[in-house]
Structure formats: structure tokens, C-alpha cells
Design a protein that fits this description.
Rossmann fold; 3 domains; five-stranded parallel sheet; five-stranded mixed sheet; 22 helices; about 20% strand; globular
């Protein structure tokens, strides 16, 4: 590494550079009380400096772990920079985690300092602090409701900064000396996996890992200091860390934090990001919201919308990619852009987007094509926590709905001949799992190849196609390939379906659990005068089952033209009487299905799907919104779906 590269090989050094070269450029914005507050790169540097020195004054040593729990807030991003500047190890924790989940990470990471956004997070930590003996100080950012907390180890963010400012007055050269000690191969952060199959693992990522992933992806997309991103996904998720911290520090662009979870869509429209990321679930939800609004529109507006959406599906992607399109189709698309696509993108806050990504789970091709047909440069990104979310990126000139693109610059991919598992090498390849050498050796081989756990194939021209999680891909008894996630994504294209779980490995047919989208189905029911009292009541209505049956059978028609999956059509389904929930352990905090837990908890329902019964009784534990535990008792209907003979796809 050259001396020039060493000047900026850690994030505190990059932030110091930004404060020098672009001191007045917006770095972080936060909406508070309805007003956007702007912090420049100079503000970021000064705030993180005083915070870092406050931690030192409280006794922090190099190597100490600093936990961060809360929503996306500029002040919490500064904790990363502050801890790293003086040799600490920041560990973000999912803010919606229950006390037991938070306790595990705090205890496993041996956190000595814990930063909490507000009273809610403070209370969670205090409820488990007796089981986490390493914690020395609990520091809160939002002081609302904290007036009567008199514990000596509970401190306010501002007070710690004030201590740091006083320390700085007496030790003016200390901070820069500590920043300069940082090296590229030092651990930058420990990020815990979502724990799909068990307890989360702490992924140790170095400055070299996160910095190179950030730098190479910034260069690949030509990102500049003029970009605007909306930071609303969990800070504990590696994707947010790449976009809102690594890339932002590298390119010097602005990160915008919404007021709260309920105002994200409003804040999105106000900011008008140029660079946007969302997991498939967000794009699916936005599509559902669109369809609900269209259903409420007048007949003429509905007809106009569907007509021009059909035009977009026919030629929108080709126009965006600069491919040949007939003059008449271009005219129709231009009119559609004035009447439908433009206003729609403006309503969503997508008018200024130059590049958008989706990742974290496969996106249904229908949803993907829909957004691109509107002229939104949506691309798929592939990576894991163990790669800093950096393995594959789609190229603007060749974006396909069924691949995640070629290896990103600096990355290599191979498919294991025996298992079909995707393996990679990446500049972002993690150092190892914290306190778990055995798991590290199982995941990363001596040559640096990382086992992803995903099943995939490489196309002839070098693009990766991810089929499913390797452990989830199976076969029906007749040998037909069973890829549950692929089928589930097709189901989730429909606005009425928010989640689906398919079953079929070593069975004669495929069956499915369905979660309805309460807002979409509720809106539909109200317009038809169908009364209901709860999610459970609505989910059990015959009229709703009829609508879901139509969705399932449309998926079967699509599968019928897929030579590999035509035999994996859904023969029976049921609508679950409750939404699958992370608080009940059925989903991870990143909304991935925990299949093992679902298989154990709903074994009775699975058995019913593979029998001839038409109803089945269930009793299941559930967590209410106020945290109380309860038992759900319900009689669930099971219905057949029509399947179709295999056929050739239309050319």
C-alpha cells in the first residue's frame, strides 16, 4: 500500500479528509419535528471527534466493543467513526430485536459501551444488563423520557461529547495520533448475521474489506459527492453499512435519515434520492400500494393506467437500454411517461433516481420488470455479510431479471461441482467469525473461497443465476426440481400476497402457506361490502380464498412453461390465520423465512396440505404488538388449486 493510500485506509481518515476538502457539503440529514436538519462533513468530523474523546475519558481502551442500537440517525452513524478513531469495535444491533436477541449479541460481543437511540432501547438493555457483566456505560441519544433515570452508568450522548470536548482542550494532539494508528487490516466492525438457521454469528470485517468494497462499487457506478441516499434500512444490516457509511465516506455524498418508520415514503418524496436501495419486500409493498390506489381510482383512470402499463411492459426496458423500438411504440411510451410513468415516479419519490439496487433475497422477475419498464434503472446486487454485500453487480448495459449479474470488479465466482453451491472471492471477504474459528473454517477455505450456502449456476456468458438457498433446494419424488424461494417470489408478485412458504421436498406435489396483505385485501373487501373483524377473520373468508386461488393458479400457468419447474406447480394451499413474524421467530430481522422453525411449529398444517382434509385445527404461540405472549387457536381451510400440463413458452 502506498503512502497516499495509507492516508485514507480507514473511515476516520476518510471523514477527516472530507472535512478538509468538502467541509460545507451536506453529509447527513435528519428529519426532526417535520424539519430537515443538515450536518456537513465538518460537523461529522467534529461531532465524532468529541464523542471519541468522551469515550476515552470514560475509560475506553483500544479493542473495546461498542454496541449501537437504534434507528438510522446521524448521531448513531457518528458512533462508528468515533469508536473506530480510537481503536474501538462498533457492533450494530437490530433495533427491533427483543431483549433476548439483544442480550445474546451484547454478551457474545462482550460490549463495554452501549449506545441507544432512545428510552425504548435503554429499557431493553437495562432488562438484561445483569446478564451482560462487561457493560460499563449505557449512553442514550434522545433524552425524551430519560429525566428520572439516575443510574450512574447511564449517560446522555451530549454529556459524553462535552467530556470529550474538555478532554480535547487538554490533549489537542491525542485524537489525530489515535486516528493515524489505524491500519487497513484492523477490524472495522463486527456485524451479526440474521440467524436464519440458528444463533447469529459475528462477522469481523476489516477496514480493507469495507473500504475496498465501498471504493470499487463507487467507481463502478460513478458515484459522486452529489448523490443523495435515503437511509432507512437497519443499521445492523451490512447493505446499509456499505451504502450509508462506506460509500458515503468514500464519495462524500449525503445520507438522509427519515423521521420515523411511518414517514419513510413521505420523506422519500421530499428528498428525491439519486441513488436508492431497497430489498424486494419494499418494492413489492410499493407495488401493492400502487395497485390499491388504482383500485380506488375512477374507471377511466384505471383503464388509462393499465393501457400504458402494458405499453411500458412491451417496450419500456428496451427504450431505457437504448435498444431498437418502433416509432409508434416510442410515441405511446412518451405519452405514457407524461400521463402515468412520470407522475407515478414522482409520487414514489423516484423521479431523480440514477441507479437503484435490490438485494437480500431474490426478486420476482415480474416485479423487477415492472419497475424497469417505468424507466427506473433498477439492478440486482448480490452479496452477503461475509462479503460486505459485494460479490455481483449488474451492468447498466446488460440487466436481466433472472441473474444477479457478473462478478463485481475484483471478485471471482465458482460453482461447486458436487453440490452446486456458489463460492466467491471478494475484496470484501470477511476476516472470520468472532470467537468461532470452527465456523470460519467451515465457511472460508484456506485458499480464500467462501461458501455462500446458495445454489446457483453460471450462464455461458458469465452471469450468476441464484436459484435458492442450497439447503432449501430439493426434488419431488418424481425428480422434479423444487426451488421454494423461486415459487414464493412468483406468489408475492400479487398484491394480495405478502408472504408465502412452499413445501414439497421428497413429496409428490408442491403445497403452500399464504400470508395475505392485510391492507390490500382489506381495501378490496371494504369496496365489496365484506365486513371483517381481524386479520384472522379476513384470512378465513371464502371470498379471500377464491382470490388467492386465482393468484396460485396464475403462478401454476407461469410454471407450466418452465421446462425445469413445470412439475412443481402448487396443488394445495392454505391461508395462515396470522402473519409470520420476526418476534415469533418465524422470520429473521431482515424478513427471511426461518423454514426449520416454521416446519416444526406448523407441522400439523403441513401434514394437512399433503392429505385430503378440507379443514384443520391449529394452536400456535404468537406475540402481540405490546409484547405480550398469547395463543392463537383457529380452524384453517385447505383448498386445491388447478395445475396445468407442461407447455412451450411463447416465442
Amino acid at each position: 500500500m502506498t503512502n497516499k493510500e495509507q492516508e485514507f485506509d480507514t473511515f476516520p481518515k476518510l471523514i477527516r479528509r472530507n472535512a478538509d476538502v468538502r467541509p460545507d457539503r451536506p453529509a447527513y440529514r435528519e428529519k426532526e419535528y417535520g424539519i430537515w436538519q443538515t450536518y456537513t462533513w465538518k460537523d461529522v468530523y467534529e461531532n465524532s471527534r468529541s464523542l471519541a474523546l468522551g469515550l476515552v475519558d470514560l475509560g475506553m481502551q483500544r479493542g473495546d466493543t461498542v454496541a449501537i442500537i437504534g434507528s438510522n440517525r446521524p448521531q448513531l452513524y457518528w458512533v462508528f467513526a468515533a469508536a473506530q478513531a480510537v481503536g474501538g469495535l462498533p457492533v450494530p444491533i437490530y433495533q427491533d430485536g427483543v431483549a433476548d436477541e439483544i442480550q445474546f449479541v451484547l454478551e457474545h460481543a462482550e460490549a463495554k459501551f452501549v449506545f441507544c437511540e432512545d428510552q425504548e432501547q435503554v429499557d431493553k438493555v437495562l432488562s438484561v444488563i445483569d446478564k451482560c457483566p462487561n457493560i460499563r456505560y449505557l449512553i442514550y441519544e434522545d433524552d425524551r423520557g430519560m429525566r428520572h433515570y439516575k443510574q450512574p452508568n447511564v449517560k446522555s450522548y451530549k454529556d459524553v461529547q462535552a467530556q470529550g470536548a474538555a478532554y480535547d482542550q487538554k490533549n489537542a494532539v491525542f485524537f489525530d495520533a489515535e486516528v493515524n494508528k489505524g491500519k487497513a487490516d484492523d477490524i472495522a466492525t463486527i456485524m451479526y448475521t440474521s440467524g436464519t438457521t440458528g444463533r447469529p454469528k459475528g462477522v469481523m470485517l476489516s477496514f480493507r474489506n469495507m473500504g475496498e468494497a465501498g471504493r470499487l462499487s463507487v467507481e463502478f457506478e460513478n458515484l459522486t459527492e452529489n448523490e443523495k441516499v435515503l437511509s432507512y434500512l437497519p443499521m445492523a444490516w451490512v447493505g446499509d453499512h456499505l451504502f450509508s457509511y462506506s460509500q458515503a465516506s468514500t464519495a462524500g455524498f449525503s445520507v438522509n435519515c427519515p423521521e420515523n418508520a411511518e414517514t419513510v415514503l413521505t420523506d422519500l418524496r421530499e428528498i428525491g434520492p439519486t441513488y436508492y436501495f431497497a430489498p424486494p419486500a419494499i418494492f413489492e409493498n410499493l407495488l401493492t400500494q400502487m395497485m390499491i390506489r388504482i383500485e380506488d381510482a375512477s374507471a377511466i383512470k384505471q383503464k388509462m393506467f393499465h393501457y400504458f402499463v402494458d405499453v411500458a411492459k412491451k417496450c419500456g426496458v428496451e427504450i431505457m437500454e437504448g435498444k431498437p423500438v418502433s416509432f409508434m411504440d416510442r410515441i405511446k411510451y412518451a405519452i405514457g411517461d407524461i400521463l402515468v410513468y412520470g407522475p407515478l415516479k414522482n409520487t414514489l419519490g423516484f423521479s431523480q433516481i440514477r441507479v437503484a439496487y435490490t438485494a437480500g433475497a431474490p426478486m420476482g422477475p415480474e416485479v423487477f420488470k415492472f419497475y424497469r419498464s417505468l424507466g427506473i434503472n433498477l439492478k440486482q446486487l448480490y452479496g452477503q455479510t461475509e462479503s460486505c454485500a459485494y460479490v455481483c453487480i449488474q451492468n447498466d448495459r446488460d440487466v436481466r431479471p433472472d441473474t444477479v449479474g457478473p462478478p463485481a470488479p475484483g471478485c471471482e465466482i465458482k460453482i461447486d461441482d458436487a453440490t452446486g453451491e456458489v463460492m466467491f472471492k471478494s475484496p470484501g471477504t470477511f476476516v472470520g467469525y468472532y470467537k468461532n474459528d470452527e465456523a470460519t473454517k467451515e465457511t472460508k477455505d484456506p485458499d480464500g473461497w467462501v461458501h455462500t450456502g446458495d445454489a446457483g449456476i453460471m450462464t455461458d456468458d458469465g452471469q450468476l443465476k441464484v436459484i435458492d438457498r442450497a439447503k432449501d433446494v430439493g426434488k419431488l419424488t418424481d425428480g422434479t426440481l423444487f426451488a421454494p424461494q423461486y415459487i414464493e417470489n412468483k406468489l408475492k408478485f400479487f398484491p394480495f400476497i405478502s408472504e408465502a412458504v412452499c413445501h414439497g421436498h421428497e413429496r409428490d406435489t408442491v403445497t403452500a402457506f399464504i400470508n395475505i396483505d392485510l391492507e390490500a385485501v382489506g381495501n378490496w373487501a371494504e369496496r365489496r361490502g365484506i365486513s371483517y373483524t381481524s386479520y384472522q377473520d379476513l384470512a378465513n373468508r371464502d371470498e379471500v380464498y377464491a382470490q388467492i386461488k386465482e393468484c396460485v393458479e396464475q403462478v401454476n400457468k407461469d410454471l407450466a412453461i418452465d421446462s425445469e419447474l413445470a412439475g412443481a406447480q402448487i396443488s394445495r394451499f392454505l391461508v395462515l390465520p396470522k402473519a409470520l413474524d420476526a418476534d415469533d421467530g418465524e422470520l429473521t430481522r431482515t424478513r427471511k423465512v426461518r423454514r426449520r422453525i416454521i416446519a416444526e411449529r406448523y407441522e400439523t398444517l403441513i401434514n394437512a396440505l399433503f392429505s385430503n382434509v378440507e379443514t384443520v385445527d391449529i394452536e400456535s404461540q404468537m406475540t402481540f404488538e405490546d409484547g405480550r405472549q398469547g395463543t392463537l387457536k383457529a380452524t384453517v381451510k385447505v383448498r386445491d388449486a388447478d395445475t396445468y400440463p407442461a407447455m412451450r413458452a411463447a416465442s
